[in-house]
Design brief:
The chain has 424 residues and is α/β, with parallel strands linked by helices. The chain contains 16 helices and 20 strands. A six-stranded parallel beta sheet has the order 3-19-15-16-17-18, sandwiched between helices. It has a six-stranded mixed beta sheet with strand order 6-5-4-9-12-13, with helices on both faces. It has a two-stranded antiparallel sheet with strand order 1-2. The two termini are 28 Å apart. Residues 8-213 form the LarA-like N-terminal domain.
Length: 424
């Protein structure tokens, strides 16, 4: 027997697993990477060596209104390290700059003050001007153009009015945008719901290039990069983090080329070859990425790439915040035919995309390939509405999986952190 441990909220979920039926363990090499520098020094070095851009303090010179886009409470961006360094650089170039930190909530719920303090620290929350983006507040938004796909490009007015627009973020594999970070600060980060819905349409989500680790030819990425350029996102600071949420690498500079450089670094560490199995066990990387079912779909896509058709995915995600989206939940509550749901989404015109359709579409795709057993703190009735099977722990989940498969010796692939790997 071997003891396995998976991230679960702010804790770990452990179990004993029979090694004889384990096909393999898919892990990123990030944990083996030693940057041999402190987290602060890594970010400082990136700021001093920007990619295809002047330095941040140089860009700040003569700029009155400066807006820094920051990730929200659902992202483990180490803002306590990044934000003070960015603020210092901006003020070194322009001590009189009027700086606003704009929280990029995208389509998520608004970030609370307590979550901001946890993210930035009390000093920044008390001293700096912070505005939380609301994608549904039409009065705070402005149209600046049309996306390549034809959708309206509408963003937060504070960003549009900025003399200098910059952002912080982190780069991880993303299940339909290829990678997070860079251009995503603008779309979906500070975009209108109208713009997000047009970009996250059924046609794009179904596109074969809209997959983890893929940017080239990805229609969502093309729209997103266009939006960042149109919004005049002048400078990004993006980091790569390990499972302890520590910075191991950073890039800064142009929102396209700096981000691309960061993606290449990450890809060199987290690309793994699928080991097909009847049962695949995975997680969503723990807090803050596993706060709800909506976010946990990301980790499931790693298992989707490794599970055999008709197999079982065991998903470990605390989901203490519930489902994560009313529309996402109601889609499954109201439609029990997964095949019909999937077909309807692919045929839905871009301008008729409904909120959270993309997440439902991807979960439906996964459920059409495999059964999902879900270990969480969410109500069992809620899990069942998503046509998943609830379980209390890994032992119970494995028992249910073997019963589904009618095979006590079904072989297993373990992916300890589903959002940290690109399964090819």
């Amino acid at each position: 027997m071997m003891k396995i441990s998976l991230p679960y909220g702010k804790e770990k979920l452990t179990a004993d697993l029979d090694e004889s039926i384990l096909n393999g363990v898919l892990v990123s090499q990030i944990e083996n990477y030693d940057p041999q520098k402190s987290q602060i020094d890594i970010v400082k070095e990136a700021l001093l060596n920007p990619v295809d851009s002047p330095g941040l303090r140089e860009l700040a010179k003569g700029k009155k209104k400066v807006v820094i886009i920051a990730s929200d409470h659902t992202r483990p961006v180490p803002s306590k390290i990044i934000m003070p360094l960015m603020l210092a650089e901006i003020r070194a170039g322009n001590p009189n700059a009027e700086i606003t930190i704009l929280i990029a909530t995208g389509f998520h719920r608004l970030t609370t003050k307590e979550e901001m303090i946890q993210k930035f620290g009390e000093a920044i929350v008390e001293k700096e001007k912070i505005v939380v983006h609301d994608s549904g507040d039409a009065d705070s938004l402005v149209k600046i153009g049309i996306l390549p796909s034809g959708g309206e490009l509408i963003i937060n007015q504070l960003a549009e009015e900025a003399d200098l627009l910059v952002s912080e973020g982190f780069i991880e594999p993303h299940f339909f945008a290829g990678f997070s970070g860079g251009r995503k600060s603008v779309l979906p980060g500070i975009a209108s719901r109208v713009t997000v819905l047009a970009n996250h349409c059924g046609e794009f989500i179904a596109h074969p290039k809209a997959r983890t680790g893929c940017i080239e030819g990805n229609p969502l990425h093309i729209d997103m990069l266009y939006a960042a350029r149109a919004a005049k996102l002048a400078f990004v600071v993006n980091v790569v983090i390990n499972s302890e949420k520590e910075v191991i690498h950073a890039v800064a500079g142009d929102c396209g080329s700096a981000h691309a450089k960061g993606c290449e670094f990450l890809k060199s560490l987290c690309r793994v070859k699928a080991i097909p199995s009847d049962i695949v066990i995975t997680s969503n990387g723990g807090y803050p990425l596993d706060q709800n079912i909506y976010q946990a779909v990301k980790g499931m896509t790693a298992a989707e790439a490794a599970v055999k058709p008709g197999g079982v995915i065991i998903m470990v995600a605390k989901s203490n915040d519930g489902h994560g989206g009313d529309s996402f939940f109601n889609t499954f509550k109201d439609e029990k035919n997964i095949e019909a749901m999937s077909e309807r989404f692919e045929k839905t015109p871009r301008n008729e995309t409904i909120p959270d359709q993309w997440e439902a579409q991807i979960l439906a795709r996964i459920l059409l390939k495999a059964k999902v057993i879900y270990i969480s703190a969410a109500p069992e009735a809620m899990i069942r509405e998503f046509q998943m099977t609830p379980a209390k722990d890994l032992a119970e989940a494995l028992s249910i999986a073997r019963e589904y498969l009618n095979n006590d010796q079904a072989r297993i692939t373990l992916i300890p952190d589903g959002v940290a790997v690109i399964v090819e």
